[in-house]
Amino acid sequence: MSWLALLLVAMGVTDLVHSVRPTRFLPGVVGAALTVVIGLLAGLTGWPDLVAVLALGGFALAWERVVALGFRTARAGLPLAMLGVGAATVVLLSGAASGAGGPYADWLAGVRLPVLSGLDPDRALLLAGVLLAQLSTGNVVVRLVLSATGTMRPSTLGGLQGPARTLKGGRLLGPLERLFILGFGLSGNLTAAAIVVAAKGLLRWPELSSPQEQDKVHRLTEYFLVGSFVSWLIPLTGLVLLS
């Protein structure tokens, strides 16, 4: 699963850099460069692996541009299709991927952190990719699905309008929520993960039931439900990959 791990790293780094420095090309370049460097350090130097690593670097460059285009032109289906095709491709071709090794595996074997002690290099790399996906990439995927379903509509400037402006803090709460769910799931505390999900509903209830928002309550409820379920699917998918 080393190629799938690199795919998640490529998207995670690209989206994270874009959230900090939303400049043209820089996020994609950083994501592509880091993907290639990690692939080489992980010993993915055979011909199939080199082709895959370079292709994943190109994916990072294309992902940043396609996502920006999707938000700018309200064509969210394009980046979602790109994500689906990319993930399906690396999974179908995963049998040709070599296991992670090289200097990265040597470094991992020497780490004295209990959480990393004895961890398989492939699993550790996949864990890093899954963790990165919970951050800005999770927010991007949620926004893309909301846009594709017509639950919200990006403006011509790439921002949000309608109910998206009413619910505050989603860019921070979303990643925190996904990390909590993933962490509780990995530790086997699924009940605690369910409590996090329930707590989100309680925290959002005043906004959804506010008398001042009755004219928007149906749109707000749809926005909340669709966004929440998509957001929860991201860490749950990560748990499936890591199981």
How would you characterize the overall build of this protein?
The protein has 243 residues and is mostly helical. The protein has helices spanning 2-20, 26-41, 47-73, 77-92, 102-110, 121-148, 170-186, 190-209, 217-242. Mean pLDDT is 84; it is low at 153-167.
Task: Summarize, please.
Helix content is 73%, strand content 0%.
What is this structure's SSE topology?
Layout: H1 2-20, H2 26-41, H3 47-73, H4 77-92, H5 102-110, H6 121-148, H7 170-186, H8 190-209, H9 217-242
Helix pairs in contact: 1-2, 1-3, 1-6, 2-3, 3-4, 6-7, 6-9, 7-8, 7-9, 8-9
Mean pLDDT comes to: 84
**Separation, N- and C-terminal Cα atoms:** 12 Å
Number of strands: 0
N-to-C series of helices and strands: HHHHHHHHH
Structural class: mainly alpha
Helix count, DSSP H or I runs of 4 or more residues: 9
Beta-strand percent range: under 5%
Report helical residue fraction: over 70%
Keywords: Membrane, Transmembrane, Transmembrane helix
Transmembrane segments: 29-59, 80-104, 124-146, 179-203, 223-242
